[in-house]
Amino acid sequence: EEDVEVASVTTSPSRPSKLRRHRKLKALLLSKYDSVWNTTVALGWTPYTADQPGGSKYNVCWSDTSVSLERIMKMGRIQKINHFPGMLELVRKAGTARNLNKMLGAIGKDYKFYPQTFMLPADYTALKQEWTNGKNHGNKTFIIKPSKGCQGTGIQLTRCLDDISPHEPNIVQRYLHRPHLLEGFKYDLRIYVLLSSVQPLRIFLFKEGLVRVCTQKYAPLEKNMSDVRMHLTNYAINKGSEAFVQPEDDTECSDAHKRTVSSLMRTLEEDGHDTKKLWEQIGQVCVKTIISVKPHLQHTYFTCRGRSEDAGSGCFELLGFDIMMDSKLRPFLLEVNHSPSFTCDSPLDLAVKSAVLKSTMELVSFSKEEY
Q: Which sequence ranges form a coiled-coil region, renumbered to this chain (predicted)?
């Protein structure tokens, strides 16, 4: 698309002196995360809470949850908010499935990076077809996800149609049963992506992110479908395991169950894989996913913000894309998070998340000329 701009972010970008960021900004922080508060202070910003005098005169508002349309409509010329209106259409599992299924039908194989997905109860008849005419001899495994679930709650694996309720609003997907393994363990990637404008569509991919590793070695699916710590990479599920190892510092994480994307890429390079090609494919997954909701985002945004008063960058969104590779190292999208966790339980967490937050805030802040 002609009006899509994509860039990768490694560290905070340097700027010519004429574009230096204004450091005396006011930040309205509706956030529980210490890392968010500490980053604003480190940048020289003045943080406020909602009940403090001066909070309504913020330059940047950072909220852990979606903000009201009313707040976005009332934004001033030098104010920004960290959520786009209409973003729930992408980040809710049902919305992700609906939009990516639509793009798959319209465009074809370019959108095959999302596992075959059924939205219940609407798609239950189509799902039943997977068990008819000899299509499934007990070999196809499906993963059932509550449409509004998070942190792996309520997820289960099944090969039996009777385990799937035709009435519950669940998302049912083909299970990626041949994942790429890391030392015999299943893993996924948390890729941070910043959407800073909807017109043009301006997307930044952070080259550093997190790798979440299961705490139980992966084995072929037979009688182990209930072993959630073998099949689900969610940190909330695995951190309670006795086998879970936190990284001791922000560089040495080779034996830990949470690692950096850069350390994974080094491992893959040592094994002879083309990591440059892999990173390009991961970037394409992220960009194509956002493109699937571009019309909706633009329409919703400019309904709240007239085009004459806002070019399309009054909001921004820091997304967490969960990516898993199959045995051929092809990336697949698992889900998109519009409020990724910034809890820091280890030095590695702190290093990665603080860098992402700092770069994001610098990228979206106002220059001295704008201010």
A: none
Whole-angstrom distance, CA of residue 351 vs CA of residue 239: 19
Q: Is 49 within the bounds of a domain?
A: no
The count of structural domains within the chain is 1
Query: Would you state the structure tokens that stand for residue 116, as one six-digit string?
Result: 């075959």
Q: Which two tokens stand for residue 121?
A: 């109860």
CATH number of the structural domain spanning residue 150: 3.30.1490
> Given phi > 0 = left and psi -120 to 50 = alpha, else beta, which region is 92?
beta
- Give the orientation angle of helix 275-291 with respect to helix 261-270, to 10 degrees: 140
Place of tokens 């040495």: 252
CA dist., res. 148 & res. 169, Å (int): 9
What range defines the domain where residue 134 resides? 116-175
- Dump pLDDT digits (tens) for 170-227: 999 999 989 999 999 999 999 999 999 999 999 999 999 999 999 999 987 767 888 9
pTM (2 d.p.) = 0.92
Whether 165 is in a domain gets the answer yes
